[in-house]
Amino acid sequence: MEAGYAGALSHDVIHGLDITVALGLDRIVPADRMRMVLGALSPKNVNFFGVDLDGIELRADDVDFSYGSGSVLAGSAQDLLLVLCGRALPAGSLRGDAAERFTVPVSPSR
User: How far, in Å, CA of 28 to CA of 49, rounded?
Assistant: First the structure.
């Protein structure tokens, strides 16, 4: 991510989602913040995390965002941002043929 305001916001959004997703909390990042974070992405940023997206197009269903080309992997922009950052999401968060590649089964409650 780039430095400055967009870089700081990116870190806040990504690490905030790391926490809330792990805890199973429903946090919706405001669309204007997601647009800024996603707009600051570059191939260099994406390559940093080492996620294999060959043959996959990420397509958000809540904001105008897509990345890559190929078989569509759909979900919320914030979930796709976490995919770009190499995070695995709870099962059911993503849709498409490659969804299982980027998700983990949901643990049963204790």
Answer: 23
